[in-house]
Amino acid sequence: AQLTMQKATIVPPGGQIATLKLASFSLQAGSACGIIGAAGSGKSTLALAAMGVLPLANGTVQLGGTALAAYDTDNLGQYIGYLPQEMQLLPGTVAENITRYQADAPQDLLFAAARNAGAFDMITQLPKGFDTDVRQLSGGQAQRIGLARALFGDPVLLVLDEPNSNLDNEGVAALNAAVRRFKRKGNTVLIIAHRPAAIQECDTLMVIESGQITAFGPKEDILRKMVKNHADISTLPAGGSAPHGV
To answer: Which of 176, 159, 166 is nearest to 145 (CA)?
Structure first.
């Protein structure tokens, strides 16, 4: 589904300074966009705004041509998959976490999410399989379950916040395969990235500085521009400051 943001501005509750300022962009269905910038630049704020988690002071966000504000709050969650940087599983079983506690969740959707996260074989080898208590999982296993939860039900928008930080090599391969599959299905992916490896499957890149989108376009064009900027900076006299990169 197409994701469009028009002059979106976010001011934290009780605050006066906007953490996202007049952000505008449009992502076509079937594309993956990497969001890069320094720590505290507003990357996660933009992603949360794209999911309708943070209320806008001004502007609009549309998913599939419909404003997020027009979606029923209970239904919006089924269209969006989210893997936060500080991923936490909820008390319960592997199955309950993947299905987001939907008691009547179809088993085929549960198995599909596990397979798409590259976690099916890992889960079936656990002491009680999908009924295993998540407290028995290692950190790497829990991260894979978090990825399966984000993929459950084939959401049309997938938001991944620094997904490579806690995944092992097999998990990263499964993640990249999942992003490719999402794009083929015409879904949209946002990836907040600090490492170049995280943007491997991205078609476009967005650069955020101090809550503002300062660059947006095809990945190779943005990377070429950033490299050129770094080259220009390197010729400055002592005291010049380099821009923040990926």
So the answer is: 166
pLDDT digits (tens, 9 = 90+) for 144-160: 999 999 999 989 999 99
Q: Report the domain count for the chain.
A: 1
The predicted-structure confidence for 34-67, as pLDDT tens digits, reads as follows: 999 988 899 999 999 999 998 899 999 999 999 9
DSSP H or E run through 110: helix 107-116
Cα–Cα nearest to 152, from 198, 199, 95:
95
Amino acid at 168: D
* Residue 218 lies in domain: 3-234
Would you put residue 89 in left (φ > 0), alpha (ψ -120 to 50) or beta?
beta
pLDDT score for 234:
45
If 0-12 CB within 10 Å is exposed, 13-18 middle and 19+ buried, where does residue 224 land? exposed
CATH of residue 145: 3.40.50.300
Whole-prediction pTM value? 0.86
Helix (H, G, I), strand (E, B) or coil at 84: coil
Q: How would residue 237 be classed by pLDDT, with cut points 50, 70 and 90?
A: low
Kindly list the strands in the beta sheet with 32-36, ordered across the sheet, starting from the edge strand earlier in the chain.
Answer: 80-83, 157-161, 188-192, 32-36, 204-209, 212-218
Q: Considering the domain boundaries, does residue 244 fall inside one?
A: no
